[in-house]
Amino acid sequence: MARWIGIDYGGVRTGLAHTDPSGVLAFPYKTVPTTELMSVIKALVAAEPCAGFALGIPNRWGVDAGRGLTDSSALILAFKKQLELQFPALEVTLVDETNTSEEALQSAIRSGMKKSKRSQKGAVDDVAAALILQRFLDERGR
Length: 142
Hints:
Elements: E1 3-8, E2 13-19, E3 26-33, H1 37-47, E4 50-57, H2 60-64, H3 73-86, E5 91-96, H4 100-110, H5 115-118, H6 125-141
Parallel strand pairs: 1-4, 4-5
Antiparallel strand pairs: 1-2, 2-3
Helix pairs in contact: 4-6
């Protein structure tokens, strides 16, 4: 079976996650500068079979209805098109990312991550990507 890749896209940094080979559980991978994102994704796709991407977007339901766009929506939708062009055989699904950054921060606190580490920019972006990916997997499994 092929794994899925989760993406918490940002203008400066982007969090990445991936599933186990069976496509059931999501795991944080790493946070990368967005300028390096496509090369990192290409390497991930080349390393193991990939089923597709779960791309986080704020207020997905509003975006789907043509309203409720946020400042980051245009960047995320443009990146979605890049993914579709680069990987035409792979599915790219938009997933509502509401509250994933806050959930990732709370998860880091519960896991014992020191405050100095949590305050570093991008410290929990990969965890947010894993939460986005797990939401996608849970929705698919219904």
